[in-house]
Amino acid sequence: MKKINLSNPHIEALEPYMSARRIGGKGEVWLNANELPFPRQPMSLDVSDYHRYPDEGPDLVQAAYAAYAGLQPDQVLALRGADEAIDLLLRAYCRAGTDGIIISTPTYGMYQVCANIQNANVIDVPLTENYQLDVPSILAQEGIKLVFICNPNNPTGNSFNREDILTILRFFEGRALVVIDEAYIEFCPGESLVSEMVNFENLVVVRTMSKAFGLAGVHVGYLLANETVMVMMRKVSAPYPLADPCAQIALQSLNENATQLMNQQVHQISQIRDSFCEALADIPDVTNVVHSVTNFVLVFFGNNEATWEALTEAGVVARRIPHSRLAEAIRFTIGTTEQMAMVIHILKRLS
Length: 351
Ligand SMILES: Cc1ncc(COP(=O)(O)O)c(C=O)c1O
What we know:
Mean pLDDT: 96
Largest sheet: 7 strands, mixed
Order of helices and strands: HHEHEHEHEHEHEEEHHHEEHEEH
Strand order of the largest sheet: 2-8-7-6-5-3-4
Bound molecules: pyridoxal-5'-phosphate
Low-confidence stretches: none
Number of strands: 12
Structural class: alpha/beta
Number of domains: 2
Distance between the termini: 59 Å
Shape: globular
């Protein structure tokens, strides 16, 4: 057989994104993907229309999410996860080889991955020493179409100063979109920028049901934006973005009882996180715990390698982040009380 290589050279040069599932691991305690540890309750699905394509949108899901987020339905686009929203923004706004995006690392890896696929320039303006946005350096960049701000930030778990974000939004008005990734916003709702959408045409918010709603397996996310951005998004989004089973589950998860349960579980996780952080303070090998407003915590160790080995041996799958500033850190998703007690027990034994 004749071997031919037709691949696009800049794609051929890429490495596939190493998601938590791809990295994998061995063990019973999964604390690596910022998922909720509580199993979902059974739901009923109406399959009678499954011989037809699903509704575009679907309108009911977008309307339900709009009511939840305090927006109009035409400001909501339901997608296959927040990741699809990030990808569509890159494709709609960045010309390959010409336009750029700003990211502030350490941050969520998919901004860079989607930019690489689109062959957009990536300008990294690293976070400051205390993991805040370096505003003067961000404002000094040129040729930018999208500024990605993950608030609260993954993997550090902290939120950014609101005034800094507003300064960036004001500066880039008419020049670039500022995309706020609010994947973890339910854990700190007061930090949301959605209320600023009336003031800024260039503000885009990305959300997901994979985290606080506990629906990572259903993979539904949302892009929230004003009309000019939505016009562009409709041009690049796939037909029937949500499969109907996902749409039905998303819809049921946005009713009053379900959002109440979500809020209870968010509260529970926040309490477990705070107790976990208190317990970490007593472990001599812990050199720093970044203040988290999310369902995960970034912890630095004196002897990170030995800690990682001890966790792995005990069947705890956490996450190491491939970033030079985080070589001594491990990110722990907050699991159940028992799971976090187990982590503390392992760390104490090691110390
Ligand atoms: C900051 C951030 N944004 C987006 C996502 C992806 O969300 P989704 O599961 O909706 O694609 C994640 C997942 O870990 C995330 O941490």
